[in-house]
């Protein structure tokens, strides 16, 4: 729940920022000189890119949460079996061991979105965020009946 609140607050702050930056872009365009119009258009591009990025990430998170809820209803969410240090951090060897099992499970069933979901969690636990995201994207695509290129 804490992550959802943090995400919502960050998204709200970004939207306010986009509005402020967008208003500056409009102000620059209204000045009407060649330089201010050029800068105004350039400034307006930043909020457009930011809104697109925020939208895509929000959609990704919503779809991943939907998969998690479905997997939870089936009783298939991965169990947290990782060893932790005294400070609460995940033990690297433990994460590697779980990752190896999840990878083998995914290799045995490459068309099962559930195994890709669990692999994404294992990548995340191993602190490999880019691969975790790609594995989750594959899980989402497989669940939706789409295919992703390797």
Give a written overview of the molecule.
The chain has 150 residues and is mainly alpha-helical. Helix content is 77%, strand content 0%. The chain contains five helices and no strands. It has helices spanning 2-31, 34-74, 92-108, 113-125, 129-143. Helix 3 (92-108) runs antiparallel to helix 4 (113-125). The longest helix has 41 residues, at 34-74. The chain is elongated. The relative contact order is 0.08.
Number of helices: 5
What helical percentage do the residues reach? over 70%
Shape estimate: elongated
Number of strands: 0
Give the rounded overall mean pLDDT.
90
Backbone CA Rg: 21 Å
Transmembrane segments: 7-27, 33-55
Keywords: Membrane, Transmembrane, Transmembrane helix
Protein name: Tetratricopeptide repeat protein
InterPro entries: TPR-like_helical_dom_sf
Topology:
Blueprint: H1 2-31, H2 34-74, H3 92-108, H4 113-125, H5 129-143
Helix pairs in contact: 1-2, 2-5, 3-4, 4-5
InterPro entries: TPR-like_helical_dom_sf (IPR011990)
Transmembrane segments: 7-27, 33-55
Keywords: Membrane, Transmembrane, Transmembrane helix
Question: What are its keywords?
Answer:
150 residues, mainly alpha, 77% helix, elongated
């Amino acid at each position: 729940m804490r992550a959802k609140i943090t995400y919502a607050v960050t998204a709200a702050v970004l939207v306010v920022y986009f509005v402020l930056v967008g208003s500056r872009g409009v102000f620059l365009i209204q000045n009407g000189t060649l330089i201010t119009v050029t800068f105004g258009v350039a400034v307006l591009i930043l909020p457009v890119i930011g809104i697109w990025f925020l939208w895509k990430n929000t959609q990704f998170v919503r779809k991943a949460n939907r998969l998690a809820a479905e997997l939870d209803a089936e009783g298939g969410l991965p169990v947290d079996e990782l060893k932790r240090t005294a400070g609460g951090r995940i033990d690297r060897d433990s994460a590697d061991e779980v990752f190896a099992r999840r990878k083998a499970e995914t290799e045995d069933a490459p068309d099962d979105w559930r195994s890709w979901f669990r692999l994404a969690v294992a990548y995340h636990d191993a602190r490999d965020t880019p691969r975790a995201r790609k594995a989750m994207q594959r899980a989402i695509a497989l669940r939706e009946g789409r295919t992703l290129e390797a």
